[in-house]
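Limitations

Structures in this collection are predictions, not experimental determinations, and the ligand pose is part of the prediction. Treat each record accordingly. The example that follows, with 5'-deoxyadenosine as the small molecule, is included so readers can see exactly what is and is not provided: the inputs are given verbatim, and the output is the predicted complex.
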Amino acid sequence: MTDTRTAPKKVLIKTYGCQMNAYDSDRMADTLAAEGYRPTDDLAEADLVLLNTCHIREKAAEKVYSELGRLRVAKEEAARMGRRLTVGVAGCVAQAEGEEIARRAPVVDLVVGPQSYHSLPALLSRAAAGERAIETEFAIEEKFARLEAAGRAPARTPSAFLTVQEGCDKFCTFCVVPYTRGAEVSRPVERILAEAEALAAGGVREVTLLGQNVNAWHGLGPDGREWGLGELLFRLAEIPGLDRLRYTTSHPRDMDDTLIAAHRDLAELMPYLHLPVQSGSDRILKAMNRRHTADDYRALVDRIRTARPDIALSSDLIVGFPGETDADFAATMRLVEAVGYAACFSFKYSARPGTPAATRDGQVDEAVKSERLAQLQALIAAQQDAFNRSKLGAAMDVLFEKKGRFAGQLAGKSPWLQAVQVEAPEALIGTIGRVAIERLGTNSLFGRLIGTAGGAGAPALAEAAS
Ligand code: 5AD
Ligand code: SF4
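Predicted complex:
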């Protein structure tokens, strides 16, 4: 499609929810760049606004409608100024609600589900012709193929996401993901390696592999054997320049021996693992269809910690799942106490339309959920604080990612995903430095640069070099 206007069109993409959406937003920006759209953060100059939405809990989904209310005003304002503002809804709310969005919010010109982003140019043409353009087909193979063909713009930060797998076949009874993101599909090995190599060549030092169920990833390896995520990580670790590897989000059932061995053997695999458990009660775990018990999880954590003693763990936890009693909740508290997490995300159960748990008996009172959440969050906060405190006085490698909050400071990440602020020259962005941790802030650690580690020879990033 050719653009006959001289001024580039501008697109504002607003991202909600998980890292997968963040990755998809960047890929949508790449696709739209080929259509002549440049990114903007300023609504007043935008020709197109895309909301990349999240449907995981009711609150997240409702945010979309309040944002659409604001966009209605902006669209009218633009029209008064003789400009056309096109409004699109992408992501999981788009997938789950489709036509319903257009009905509830007439401001919306196009609706596009997460597996149809390659159709954006066609949808925009239809919207420009005055049509309500809606596309919510499940077409993951086509999305992967077409987005890959469109290419990926060079990363602007030393840490990048790389989607290796989409969708989920686990069907936890509370979760919309199997319905909004569809069945589990793995990207082929060679495509993942090509993208990782391109990222490394562009100066990326840390890659986080993404998937709704990332450790269910599998594919045919170049050795003719079926690979799991462990084998893939061993291969990715060989790519020069990729000093740090991470992956998220994992299911406890899919932590196989090779993956645990990767934690033992690969210095590149960072000692941090997000391993959601959701509940510590076997009764509730069963009702959630998690397919493991609290003891299975504890035993798994032991094996992982034996393989990699300095590993930090994080989790997702839900309180107030239908039927959850005080005793069930107490079991969750006990599990969290026993495991000892570096960080946790905790949520009140939110009934999602179409999921089995939504219509079950024993829905828990909001006030009870709030009370349990407060108790759990106090425990989580204490554990997080203890974990951060344990790093006080330690020396660690920090990947410098961007300028810090104050002049002369850089913001980086510890191996354990902690934000670290350090006084260091800007030229060190994209390198890994050795840092002594001297102070704990509310959201970050403060440290002093004491040396470099692995920084030499790294190609400069597009942004860092300019
Ligand atoms: N209610 C509350 N939390 C939920 N999550 C997923 N679905 C729901 C729901 N219906 C949480 C889970 C999951 C995280 C991404 O969101 O803890 O791991
Ligand atoms: Fe949802 Fe994760 Fe369960 Fe899949 S494994 S259904 S994404 S909570």
